[in-house]
């Protein structure tokens, strides 16, 4: 199947490139599936399970939980900040007003 690229316009080339990339992704996925099957077969042939080799953390996410607040807004005690992530506006405003971080600490 030879395609004469010189006779294709811009849209046809983009369409061809898109189809080629899609096919490339399909081939890669097929190869990954085959490789995964080979690995599982080898592990099983040796008398082990996947979990024996790689552990049982597969598919589990580590829970980070919540962090206790570290700072409190003196003007509105309901507003707190754990000290992680982007600083809240009230925290920056208090620093600009001359307060120190230790003044806002809980």
Give structural notes.
The mean pLDDT is about 90. With about 110 residues, the chain is mainly alpha-helical. The chain has 2 domains: about 10-55; about 70-105. About 50% of the residues lie in helices and about 5% in strands. The protein is built from 4 helices and 2 strands. The longest helix has about 35 residues, at about 10-45. One of its GO terms (cellular component) is nucleoid. Keywords: Cytoplasm, DNA-binding. This is DNA-binding protein H-NS. It comes from Rhodanobacter glycinis.
Outline of the structure:
By secondary structure, the chain is mostly helical. The chain has helices at residues 10-45, 50-54, 89-96, 101-104; strands at 71-72, 80-81.
**Structural class assignment:** mainly alpha
Distance between the termini: 72 Å
Shape designation: flat
Mean pLDDT: 89
| Rounded radius of gyration (Å) | 29 Å
- Number of beta-strand segments: 2
Q: Biggest sheet, strands in spatial order?
A: 1-2
**Major sheet:** 2 strands, antiparallel
Overall number of domains: 2
Beta-strand percentage?
under 5%
What is the N-to-C succession of helices and strands?
HHEEHH
Percentage of residues in helical conformation: 40-55%
Low-confidence stretches: none
Q: What assembly state would you assign to the polypeptide chains in this entry?
A: single chain
Number of helices: 4
Keywords: Cytoplasm, DNA-binding
GO cellular component, one term: nucleoid
Family: Belongs to the histone-like protein H-NS family.
Region (Disordered): 59-89
């Amino acid at each position: 199947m030879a395609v004469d690229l010189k006779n294709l316009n811009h849209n046809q080339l983009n369409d061809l490139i898109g189809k080629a990339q899609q096919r490339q992704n399909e081939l890669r996925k097929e190869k990954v599936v085959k490789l995964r099957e080979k690995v599982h077969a080898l592990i099983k042939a040796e008398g082990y399970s996947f979990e024996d080799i790689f552990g049982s953390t597969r598919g589990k996410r580590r829970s980070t939980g919540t962090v206790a607040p570290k700072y409190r807004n003196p003007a509105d005690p309901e507003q707190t900040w754990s000290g992680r992530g982007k600083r809240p506006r009230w925290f920056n405003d208090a620093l600009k007003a001359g307060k120190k971080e230790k003044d806002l600490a809980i």
